[in-house]
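call fold(seq) -> tokens
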Amino acid sequence: MANTVEPIRNKKDIAKIKNALNGRDRLMFVMGISLGLRISDLLALKIGDLRGKTHITLKEQKTKKNRPIKLSKTVMAEVAALTGPDDEYVFKSRQGGNKPISRVQAYRILNAAAERAGVNIEIGTHTLRKTFGYQLYKQGLDITRIMLILGHSTPAMSLKYIGITSEEIDQAYEAIEI
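ret:
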């Protein structure tokens, strides 16, 4: 696995990867880029955590903090197709038993989808969370709110995390005409 991954910046690439997936794997991708959860928190979700809900609160495994999350219409539409008992993992392993897929398997799924889609960037499980933050930024959400959503301690950390490059900063200077 690569040590550094980037967000998926191009919405066409997001659509290509989404279309290269189906079922459980598509749901993992959609939820990952729509909720900004760490992969450990995403894989730990059970069907009952989501079924019929518009909001969830989860205790983040890394920070141990409770995080309230509003489910987007896109996520709710994908979740509506879930079947199974409430105590079953959303991203259930096909290896038997009631266990979620592993981080490594999630990584493999994402990379295979990117390859099938012809998207040639460094993809990892953290790409989902970074894509969420990057797309929020590109849609105009201020960096302070993104910082709070992602649980970062400084705006600079969030900018670096979502991959705002010096080229994009240069473009901002070029675009301003006062």
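The CA atoms of residues 135 and 141 lie 9 Å apart.
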